[in-house]
TrEMBL record:
This is Succinate--CoA ligase [GDP-forming] subunit beta, mitochondrial. Substrate binds at residues 308, 365-367. InterPro entries: ATP-grasp_succ-CoA_synth-type (IPR013650), Succ-CoA_synthase_bsu_CS (IPR017866), SUCC_ACL_C (IPR005811), Succ_CoA_betaG_euk (IPR034722), Succ_CoA_ligase-like_bsu (IPR005809). It comes from the Eukaryota. The record marks 79, 147 as: Important for substrate specificity. It comes from Cyprinus carpio. Keywords: GTP-binding, Ligase, Magnesium, Metal-binding, Mitochondrion, Nucleotide-binding, Tricarboxylic acid cycle. It is found in: Mitochondrion. Residues 307-426 form the ATP-citrate synthase/succinyl-CoA ligase C-terminal domain. Pfam families: ATP-grasp_2, Ligase_CoA.
Length: 432
């Protein structure tokens, strides 16, 4: 059961944005670095919003302490907020290996911005969502600090039950929205958007009122809501979340934070947006795998799992654990696999120093098993595979595939089914 939970979590992690802790055996917690897909830094999301007429704080981006100091002077504001830019939450409570505490700082002195930035840039920031060694900060955002008199929550997302986009809002912002939904569901408001009609004026005004905006602020908030929907459509987003959408004492509605998720299938027409993808915080193996349309999840075990399909990947992780082994990863080939992808997959798996055996588990439907077999033999020869290899193939053209493997003369262990394959992979390591 524990392994099943782990493998399901790993599949969910294919679209997660940050490192997670997963239970992969009954007694062990390990870190997983899931496939991120596109995840933008805060300043990048705010730039997209700014370009769509959404009100955000004035800000500059800096890569050096001197640039941060210059940006602080250019803002000419009463108070400045300096934010470290990494793809992880909890920055305000994080700690730098320079000794500086907090990845978010407020100051009224521009000179202090340069000093603080010097203790951020080039140093690792550790938060509750980063690996234990932290993440190196390469960029900081220098922004105008605005007082917030009231915080609300607002999001636009795709909802399968509504067959399209919906607006979700709450007058309780700046907190975990799931907690609000659980404890005070009456404070969650929802508006279904007609994809052909868009956000109507009455819908935007009703949502603004439900969020607690009053008087002139109600119309201002409604305008921001409509602009956020325009952004949602323009960048092919699956979610635009603003928490908080706040009001200032001066009577201004401002988007103080933003998280935007994108439809990865729209990359072909969102090249400028996807070009902003920062892969420096990703596992290099995941980044390389993505180049070849392979989905890779790294785990802490020693048996590499080479499969086609997320469901089969979960089952493979589970059964390895059942027989006392530990999955080192799973690598999903998907459906339209080519021989070169098989070769690249083996190259990625063998690049992981933890891998002591490889288990190939292919159930060929639209996948031709002979293509897999040719890719395996090519990889074994050219990469001079040094670890035990157990192969279980079933499905389309499987007899031809088995012939290719048996006549290759390579030390490949064939398995009759998944249970047999897992037993043999675990046994191969035990013999070493």
């Amino acid at each position: 059961m524990a392994a099943s939970m782990a493998s399901q979590a790993a599949v969910r992690g294919l679209r997660a944005a940050s490192t997670k802790q997963l239970l992969v055996s009954r007694n062990q917690l390990v870190r997983v670095s899931p496939r991120r897909w596109l995840n933008l830094q805060e300043y990048q999301s705010k730039k997209l919003m700014q370009d769509s007429g959404v009100t955000v704080q004035r800000f500059f981006v800096a890569d050096t302490a001197s640039e941060a100091l210059e940006a602080a002077k250019r803002l000419k504001v009463k108070e400045i907020v300096l934010k470290a830019q990494i793809l992880a939450g909890g920055r305000g409570k994080g700690v730098f290996d320079s000794g500086l505490k907090g990845g978010v700082h407020l100051t009224k002195e521009p000179a202090a911005v340069g000093e603080l930035a010097g203790k951020m840039l080039g140093f690792n920031l550790t938060t509750k969502q980063t690996p234990k060694e932290g993440v190196k900060v390469k960029t900081v955002m220098v922004a105008e600090a605005l007082d917030i008199s009231r915080e609300t929550y607002f999001a636009i997302l795709m909802d399968r039950s509504c067959n399209g986009p919906v607006m979700v809002g709450s007058p309780q912002g700046g907190v975990d929205i799931e907690e609000v939904a659980a404890t005070t569901p009456e404070l969650i408001f929802k508006e279904v958007i007609d994809i052909f009609e868009g956000v109507r004026d009455d819908q935007a005004l009703r949502m603004a009122a439900n969020l607690g905006f009053k008087g002139p602020l109600e119309k201002q908030a409604a305008d921001q809501i409509k602009r956020l929907y325009e952004l949602f459509l323009k960048v092919d987003a699956t979610q635009v979340e603003v928490n908080p959408l706040g009001e200032t004492p001066e009577g201004q509605v401002v988007c103080f934070d933003a998280k935007i998720n994108f439809d990865d299938n729209a990359e072909f027409r969102q090249k400028a947006v996807f070009a902003m993808d920062d892969t420096t915080e990703s596992d290099p193996l995941e980044t390389e795998a993505a180049k070849y349309d392979l989905k890779y999840i790294g785990l802490d075990g020693n048996i590499a799992c080479f499969v086609n399909g997320a469901g089969l990947a979960m089952a493979t992780c589970d059964i390895i654990d059942l027989h006392g082994g530990k999955p080192a990863n799973f690598l999903d080939l998907g459906g339209g696999v080519k021989e070169n992808q098989v070769y690249v997959a083996f190259k990625l798996l063998t690049a992981d120093p933890k891998v002591e055996a490889i288990l190939v588990n292919i159930f060929g439907g639209i996948v031709n098993c002979a293509i897999i077999a040719n890719g395996i033999t090519k990889a074994c020869r050219e990469l001079e595979l040094k670890v035990p290899l157990v192969v279980r193939l079933e499905g389309t053209n499987v007899q031809e595939a088995k012939r290719i493997l048996s006549e290759s003369g390579l030390p490949i262990t064939s398995a009759s089914d998944l249970d047999d394959a897992a037993k043999k992979a675990v046994a191969a390591i035990a013999k070493k």
